[in-house]
Amino acid sequence: MYTFLGGIALLIIGYFTYGKFIEKMFGVREERPTPAYVNADGVDYMPMSTPKNSLIQLLNIAGTGPVFGPIMGALYGPVAFIWIVVGCIFAGAVHDYLTGMISIRNKGAHLPELATKFLGKAMKHVVNAFALLLLILVGTVFVSTPASLLHVLTEGKIAIGIIIAAIFIYYILATLLPFDKIIGRLYPYFGAVLLISAVGVGGGLIITGAPIPELSLTNFHPANAPIFPLIFFTITCGALSGFHATQTPMISRTTQKEGQGRKIFYGMMIAEGIIAMIWAAAAMSMFDGYGGLQELLAAGGPGAIVSEVSTTLLGAIGGTLAVLGVVVLPITSGDTAFRSARMIIADYLNIAQKKFSSRLWIALPMFAISVALTQIDFNILWRYFSWANQSTAVIALFVGAMYLYIAKKNYFVALIPGSFMLVMVITYILNAQIGFRMSMTASWIGGFIGSAILLVLFFIAANKARANNLPLEEDVSGWNKVA
């Protein structure tokens, strides 16, 4: 219990200390008008309050990742707590804050545009393809997982095909309609369910005195599976997730002032880390050890763990609400995944999105592809999603590092976690069954050599960009209104 509570305390302290340091280092300018005003279009660009933006941001980034990932990561034992806490404070929250703030400085640009500007034109097509692959995979995965949970919750009385169809209909509407029509109106209610769920499960663990394993030299890692690099692809949301880089630009288009960024971007990642800690602790403590957890995961997957934990801790009614809170997570990330994909395609093709027809013809092919992908084995989809997710995180961190390097600020806050995860990403794909299936030794060698080469290229490009005075932000001097 001490490790669990201490980890949550460190996350909160991290927000008020390291988060404040990152904000000060970046250099907030309150007087600078944000895209919500400069580019207002009544569809994607519009000013919204900090509480609403924060709640939407949390729901956008917190898919099943901070629940299912930590549940599976619990098999690694208390070492999972270390990655959640350290990863969230020094990698994930920095990743989200820099992506959001740099986007605000560049007309609410999405990651492919930012990568093109700061990492070179050659990255434009690569990052667009990566981002779209990730978002469509996310949307597909986040149809399957809530559908399976709802199927279990209704005891199989509603066919899973009907549930999937209903979720797709909601996703289509959320993708096409103006931001404030569905997402802005429904998310406060979804958020309430999410918070009740997380607080209920966390409180239940504390009140019942659940035997949460403590971090120690003898109980550091009870599982036999290798920690590196697999843990970084098992626990993503809640520690570090590139999916967030596709979501934060949506909120950068509705943020009123730059000073709200720490609460919205850094703070909501910390909140997601707390959710991840709660579910990792629950999975570690409630199934008669790691053997019992492994058996239940094999029999029913993470969804079975969610149902069992919720019902045991909160009873039938409270457990149902908790499961609904977990159902909300993927649905409120899947809808914005498709919406973000629609916006990225529109930016790539330079198509204005004010007309409904312009949004429609971009969105429909995406949903057709996603429906086809639901026929593929979920485990295979999840593996590709995990790798694409962390690869996208690396790109976003290097965008942040480049921005800070050109600005002559502390770029190490992004470069260090970015370089670390670059080694993991290359090593994983060289070794994985979905990749090149090389030996672990050869994969590690390839990971370090590949990362070293890319780092050299990064500094060559960074010095060139600094020498050429690459503009860090879009000019808004001609905009005379006060945000």
From TrEMBL:
It is a multi-pass membrane protein. The chain crosses the membrane at residues 75-98, 126-152, 158-179, 186-207, 227-243, 264-287, 313-333, 360-381, 387-406, 411-430, 442-462. Pfam families: CstA. It comes from the Bacteria. Belongs to the peptide transporter carbon starvation (CstA) (TC 2.A.114) family. It is found in: Cell membrane. Residues 6-166, 291-426 form the CstA N-terminal domain. Keywords: Cell membrane, Membrane, Transmembrane, Transmembrane helix. This is Carbon starvation protein CstA.
